[in-house]
Amino acid sequence: MLRIAVPNKGSLSEPAAQMLAEAGYRQRRDGRELVLVDAENDVEFFFLRPRDIAVYVGHGTVDAGITGRDLLVDSGVEAIEHRALGFARSRFHFAAPPASISRVEDLAGTRIATSYKVLVEKYLAERGIEAAEVIRLDGAIESTVQLGVADAVADVVETGSTLRAAGLSVFGDVLLTSEAVLIRPVGEIRPGFDVLDRRIQGVLTAREYVLMDYNIPLERVARAVDVTPGLESPTVSPLRESGWAAVRVMVRRSASHRIMDELYEIGARGILVTKIHATRL
Ligand SMILES: Nc1ncnc2c1ncn2[C@@H]1O[C@H](COP(=O)(O)OP(=O)(O)OP(=O)(O)O)[C@@H](O)[C@H]1O
Ligand SMILES: O=P(O)(O)OC[C@H]1O[C@H](OP(=O)(O)OP(=O)(O)O)[C@H](O)[C@@H]1O
Ligand SMILES: [Mg+2]
């Protein structure tokens, strides 16, 4: 039975549960359940703190896990980032009151508050910058400057509104671009992992693509297919009315309206877009 670690709390937990549900796995009914056996799919889910998941996977205690790339890096543990999952996207940045610090070099001799101490210390060490102290705190990092605990912070930024509300501005490079990731232990892939991965890949494709159907005069099929080449090759079938073909093809959801406009211009009619629920490509 494949053992999978899943975030039990925080920003990662709800979208991870949603993704696994779309992949056909059983869901826990109660947020306090710690273990869930899905015998039908031959997997066992362990609901753990997102920060600890990299450690369990790194030590090989579980066969797979979902966590944040930033948490994996900060754990200092070796595990393989097998696949990016497209949610909990964030950037990791330094920030300070704009009048005080605006360059990474100015961090020398300052106190920096963060929940990601390993990540920050590694970044500073690589640049030969010696902070007075890197203070590790659990959350609400943006408040530390106002509270007089730190001179600057290093934290997760999504929209930037938390930083703005605290009167802080980012400076320097993005230290890390993060999102939720599927991770696995170093070494041989555990039995059953490929099935989990294919199911997740299926969900990602179903989210990214839609199915497009349209009718088109035969002499314009080639032009239309140039606009919608599909992943491999579009299905082109004859319509009952002679001189017309029906085309079925996958297109990126984000481009679907632009593509419909183009197809219409070429002469396509009856253009339909349908949501894809699941895929195995
Ligand atoms: N506002 C946000 N937008 C996008 N991703 C976020 C946001 N806050 C945290 N994350 C990401 O979620 C993961 C952190 O999850 P974690 O559960 O530790 O923190 P959290 O979501 O802040 O939860 P909490 O603060 O309630 O403990 C990291 O990968 C981080 O980059
Ligand atoms: O750029 P924004 O869209 O404002 O999002 C970023 C904020 O969201 C998270 O905080 P969370 O709400 O999890 O609180 P925490 O600081 O206690 O973890 C993160 O730690 C940042 O503080
Ligand atoms: Mg948080």
UniProtKB/TrEMBL annotation:
Feedback inhibited by histidine. One of its GO terms (cellular component) is cytoplasm. Residues 49-184 form the ATP phosphoribosyltransferase catalytic domain. One of its GO terms (biological process) is L-histidine biosynthetic process. Pathway: Amino-acid biosynthesis; L-histidine biosynthesis; L-histidine from 5-phospho-alpha-D-ribose 1-diphosphate: step 1/9. Its cofactor is Mg(2+). It is found in: Cytoplasm. Gene3D superfamilies: 3.30.70.120, Periplasmic binding protein-like II. Its EC number is 2.4.2.17. InterPro entries: ATP-PRT_HisG_long, ATP_PRibTrfase_cat, ATP_PRibTrfase_CS, ATP_PRibTrfase_HisG, HisG_C, N-reg_PII-like_a/b, N-reg_PII/ATP_PRibTrfase_C. Pfam families: HisG, HisG_C. Keywords: Amino-acid biosynthesis, ATP-binding, Cytoplasm, Glycosyltransferase, Histidine biosynthesis, Magnesium, Metal-binding, Nucleotide-binding, Transferase. GO terms for molecular function: ATP binding; ATP phosphoribosyltransferase activity; magnesium ion binding. It catalyses: 1-(5-phospho-beta-D-ribosyl)-ATP + diphosphate = 5-phospho-alpha-D-ribose 1-diphosphate + ATP. The keyword Membrane does not apply. Residues 206-277 form the Histidine biosynthesis HisG C-terminal domain. Its main location: cytoplasm. Belongs to the ATP phosphoribosyltransferase family. Long subfamily. NCBIfam families: hisG, HisG_C-term. Catalyzes the condensation of ATP and 5-phosphoribose 1-diphosphate to form N'-(5'-phosphoribosyl)-ATP (PR-ATP). Has a crucial role in the pathway because the rate of histidine biosynthesis seems to be controlled primarily by regulation of HisG enzymatic activity. This is ATP phosphoribosyltransferase. It comes from Miniimonas arenae.
